[in-house]
């Protein structure tokens, strides 16, 4: 009965060899982590200039000079820019720079220089319209993309007894909806915007549509997964009362999905605020337009101010979103 | 016989409050080395709190806890860890890490002996001697074939035995078990208590086990402590406990005066 | 009487939300001058038609040189994937450290250890301050979009690929850190407490009792972020890095719409394939748990 240590070790080894494992997952993980960390070995870094490396355009880094607030710059004897601090001038410069985005409560800019519209408000407006449109787009796709509803797995046997043709059609519709959602979400909003801008020209609609398609795809996926995770036994009792399949789905599932729907809605809205800004790079008038413009003209002092302004609304959106999500359900893990 | 060197645990006037709720009030108790004690009483009597205080996992609101003659409240962080290493605890909820394999969960019993490095070693490449020892511990609970199974795949009774194997691997001088058989069927419950009783008899480890099943407690424990509403209701040898006392212990309507 | 009761009962948070949303939508439309009906596209329909006609006829030959664009395409895709992996590598490491440091569970105090004056100050004052501080730092790093980080780094150091990787890694590390911390804090702590009860130290308890329980969600989220990193990496090309976005932008600037569509299709294929693969891995993780 009693085994000696060597025998035990043999037993342990054979147990370890026969341990259940998921090779696909193991390999996938190993490959993923390996490539993430290993890619650094292949990075072509010139150790003398670790960051600049092989620059394709040899730019003299004038960043620090140009990052000095314009009104505080003075040339020294050598002809280089030097920062000369003056609190009053600094605030005046800051106020006027901010005012150029349309945020000018103190009328710092003369009327003819004042921009027509407030870039921060535009950014928020774009993000709101985008997320509303995204939610509207996702709504008709949620149930057809939820396996348990689309393929009738969650319904009573009587309801599942459909013709072979309907079953085939349902399978096709399910696959098509899933595919549509994958395409919608896997293409970045920026690329969508780029395509629409070529097609429509520089109008806000292009940006809204781009954000809406990408986020609609994500919302559709998250919400349909939520429906798939639902225990629909209680819901399907409704169909025993004679309700049709569609009304069961709408009445029984809609209200139960609502809290999670809102959580995802606000989560994606936060992302929308962040992404709206970069559409400015494509000449859609959000705060990012001012950032891109300042960079293009090497006005790094103004670029930094605009970036910080953008940070403020992104963080603001974050706080609002987090607070709302926490209210909806205690806590808000986004790792969906 | 009554010397302090034979003493495993001592509580002196221990009261424990959670907010307004009094879980234990003025409990005094002495446990000698090598005893096997059954802790019985209705739900909410304070059994779990008592065990957690004995294990140095809770600090009493009033009174003193002594483990092996050391005052728990006076211990430094390192000394407290040493005291805890010498006390094994089997939780009601078992508290295995379900994502890890059985072997890792058993190895976790000795995490008190090392730091970060030991923990990394446990998760990646455990020592051969340790693995052999884990195998031996699992053999004592008749579960060697599940050594590399994932803990989430175990049944309630198997998880319970892994929790015991973990304590065996820890090799403490005392084992505290909180409702170890509440989640398993009667036959498994008897097996588990027999395992505990055998450990007590063969290795002389002190064992304090809280139980709902009174017949099991009477059969396997040398001494029974009845608890009710945070107080010790009786504390005597198992064979001296009368049925009338047990009825009163569990009688919810009866006045306890 | 009865109707008013009925109305009060149906008026719930959902109605409030819909009302607020309607109001916000109206304000947004007003802000963007949509209410005046200015939907018309200045580009005109001819450009629209030309662009989408090209979608049906993607080309493999460059209109500029007459040679195949396949080598360009291959290199651009390779760079895109490389930047995504390298950025994720850095972001995973930094984000993991961020996540652990920003989680409350790591700093959870042993309730039995003697309360010293230093310990009390650390717990009551330093810990909340620390958590707020590190979360604020992460929120700030995250709030600047990778495109803007890229513009900043380009201005500072030039258009090296390392800048692109850093630009991507910084906001990603912050996002990963925030989510990792949330995951760790939502993990049940009972197993960790059991290990601590057996004398385990803080680091060992965290590593064995908590992290394995959180690992599934952490990995799953990391895969999802890799999909995002690949998307962001392709976009970095639009500000000058040598990922596929640069090819798309250049071809579009020359009005070579057929080439644009070739690059777009290749990018779509790459992104969809990655999405499907990472989805499969995430499902495996869920099943394995």
Summarize the structure in short:
The complex is a heterotrimer of chains A (336), B (257) and C (289). By secondary structure, chain B is of the alpha/beta class.
Strand content of chain B: 15-25%
Q: From the helix content, strand content and strand pairing of chain C, which structural class follows?
A: mainly alpha
- What's the story with the biggest beta sheet of chain C? none
Radius of gyration of chain C, CA atoms, in whole angstroms? 26 Å
The CATH class of the largest domain in chain C is identified as Mainly Alpha
Report on this model:
- The complex is a heterotrimer of chains A (336), B (257) and C (289).
- Chain A has 14 helices and 2 strands; from the N terminus they run αααββααααααααααα.
- Chain A has 336 residues and is an all-alpha fold.
- Among the domains of chain A are: 65-113, no CATH class; 119-281, MetI-like (MetI-like fold, Orthogonal Bundle), CATH 1.10.3720.
- Chain A has a two-stranded antiparallel sheet with strand order 1-2.
- In chain A, a hairpin with a 5-residue loop joins strand 1 and strand 2 (81-83).
- Chain B has 257 residues and is α/β, with parallel strands linked by helices.
- Chain B folds into 2 domains: 1-86 and 172-252, Rossmann fold, CATH 3.40.50.300; 98-171, no CATH class.
- Chain B is 36% helix and 25% strand.
- Chain B has 9 helices and 10 strands.
- In chain B, the strands form 2 sheets. A 6-stranded mixed sheet of chain B has the order 6-7-8-3-9-10, with helices on both faces.
- In chain B, a hairpin with a 2-residue loop joins strand 4 and strand 5.
- Chain B is globular.
- The model of chain B has no long low-confidence stretch (mean pLDDT 86).
- With 289 residues, chain C is mainly alpha-helical.
- Chain C has 2 domains: 1-30; 69-288, MetI-like fold, CATH 1.10.3720.10.
- Chain C has 12 helices and no strands.
- The N and C termini of chain C lie far apart (54 Å).
- At the A-B interface, helix 1 of A face helix 5 of B.
Structure keywords:
heterotrimer; B: 257 residues; alpha/beta; Rossmann fold; six-stranded mixed sheet; four-stranded antiparallel sheet; 9 helices; C: 289 residues; MetI-like fold; disordered N terminus
């Amino acid at each position: 009965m009693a085994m000696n240590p060597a025998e035990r070790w043999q037993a342990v080894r054979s147990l370890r060899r026969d341990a259940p494992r998921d090779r696909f997952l193991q390999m996938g993980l190993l490959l993923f982590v390996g490539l993430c960390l290993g890619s650094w070995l292949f990075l072509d870094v010139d150790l003398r200039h670790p960051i600049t490396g092989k620059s394709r355009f040899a730019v003299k880094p004038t960043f620090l000079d140009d990052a000095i607030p314009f009104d505080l710059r003075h040339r020294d004897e050598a002809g280089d820019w030097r920062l000369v601090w003056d609190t009053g001038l600094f605030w005046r410069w800051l106020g006027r720079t901010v005012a150029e985005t349309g945020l000018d409560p103190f009328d710092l800019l003369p009327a003819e220089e004042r921009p027509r519209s407030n870039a921060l408000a535009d950014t928020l407006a774009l993000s709101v319209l985008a997320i509303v449109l995204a939610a509207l787009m996702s709504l008709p796709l949620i149930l057809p993309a939820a396996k348990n509803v689309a393929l009738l797995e969650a319904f009573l046997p009587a309801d599942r007894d459909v013709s072979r043709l309907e079953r085939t059609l349902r399978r096709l519709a399910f696959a098509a909806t899933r595919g549509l959602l994958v395409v919608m979400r896997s293409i970045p909003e920026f690329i969508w915007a780029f395509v629409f801008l070529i097609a429509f020209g520089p109008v806000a609609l292009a940006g809204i549509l781009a954000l809406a398609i990408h986020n609609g795809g994500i919302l559709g996926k998250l919400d349909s997964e939520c429906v798939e995770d639902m225990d629909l036994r209680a819901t399907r009792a409704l169909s025993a009362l004679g309700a049709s399949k569609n009304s069961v789905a709408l009445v029984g599932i809609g209200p139960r999905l609502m809290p999670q729907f809102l959580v995802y809605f606000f989560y994606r809205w936060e992302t929308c605020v962040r992404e709206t800004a970069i559409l400015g790079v494509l000449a859609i008038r959000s705060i990012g337009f001012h950032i891109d413009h300042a960079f293009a003209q090497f006005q790094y002092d103004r670029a930094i101010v605009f970036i910080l302004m953008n940070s403020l609304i992104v963080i603001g959106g974050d706080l609002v979103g987090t607070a709302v999500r926490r209210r909806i359900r205690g806590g808000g893990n986004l790792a969906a | 016989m009554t010397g302090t060197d034979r003493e495993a645990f001592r509580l002196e006037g221990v009261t424990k409050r959670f907010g307004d709720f009094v879980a234990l009030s003025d409990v005094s108790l002495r446990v000698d080395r090598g005893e096997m004690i059954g802790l019985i009483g209705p739900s909410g009597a304070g059994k779990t709190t008592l065990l957690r205080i004995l294990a140095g996992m809770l600090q009493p609101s009033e009174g003193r806890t002594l483990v092996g003659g050391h005052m728990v409240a006076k211990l430094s962080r390192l000394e407290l860890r040493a005291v805890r290493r010498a006390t094994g605890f089997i939780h009601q909820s078992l508290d295995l890490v379900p994502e890890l394999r059985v072997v890792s969960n058993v190895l976790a019993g000795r995490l008190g002996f090392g730091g970060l490095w030991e923990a990394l070693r446990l998760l990646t490449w455990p020592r051969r001697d340790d693995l052999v020892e884990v195998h031996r511990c699992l053999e004592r609970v008749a579960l060697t074939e599940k050594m590399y199974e994932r803990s989430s795949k175990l049944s309630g009774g198997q998880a319970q035995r892994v929790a015991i194997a973990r304590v065996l691997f820890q090799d403490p001088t005392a084992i505290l078990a909180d409702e170890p058989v509440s989640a398993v069927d009667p036959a498994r419950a008897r097996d588990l208590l027999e395992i505990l009783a055998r450990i007590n008899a063969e290795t002389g480890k002190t064992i304090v086990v809280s139980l709902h099943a009174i017949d099991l407690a009477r059969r396997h424990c040398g001494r029974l402590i009845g608890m009710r509403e945070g107080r010790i209701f009786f504390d005597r040898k198992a064979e001296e406990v009368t049925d009338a006392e047990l009825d009163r212990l569990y009688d919810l309507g009866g006045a306890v005066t | 009487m009865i109707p008013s009761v009925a109305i009060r009962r149906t008026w719930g948070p959902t109605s409030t939300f819909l009302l607020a949303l309607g109001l916000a939508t109206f304000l947004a439309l007003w802000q963007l001058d949509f209410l005046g009906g200015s939907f018309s596209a200045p580009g005109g329909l001819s450009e629209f038609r030309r662009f989408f006609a090209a979608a049906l006829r993607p080309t493999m030959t460059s209109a500029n040189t007459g040679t195949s664009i396949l080598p360009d395409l291959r290199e651009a895709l390779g760079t895109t994937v490389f930047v995504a992996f390298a950025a994720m590598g850095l972001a995973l490491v930094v984000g993991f450290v961020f996540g652990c440091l920003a989680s409350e569970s790591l700093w959870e105090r042993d309730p039995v250890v003697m309360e010293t004056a230093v310990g009390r100050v650390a717990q009551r004052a330093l810990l909340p301050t620390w958590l707020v501080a590190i979360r604020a730092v992460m929120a700030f790093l995250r709030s600047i979009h990778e495109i803007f980080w890229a513009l900043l780094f380009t201005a500072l150091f030039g258009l090296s690929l390392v800048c692109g990787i850093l630009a991507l890694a910084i906001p990603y590390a912050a996002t990963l850190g925030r989510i990792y911390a949330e995951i760790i804090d939502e993990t049940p702590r009972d197993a960790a407490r059991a290990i601590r009860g057996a004398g385990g130290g803080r680091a060992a308890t965290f590593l064995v009792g908590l992290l394995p329980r959180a690992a599934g969600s952490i990995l799953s989220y990391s895969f999802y972020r890799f999909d995002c990193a690949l998307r962001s990496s392709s976009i970095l090309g639009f500000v000058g890095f040598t990922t596929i976005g640069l090819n798309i932008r250049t071809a579009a600037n020359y009005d070579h719409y057929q080439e644009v569509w070739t690059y777009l299709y290749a990018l779509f294929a790459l992104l969809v394939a990655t999405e499907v693969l990472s989805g499969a891995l995430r499902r495996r993780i869920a099943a394995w748990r």
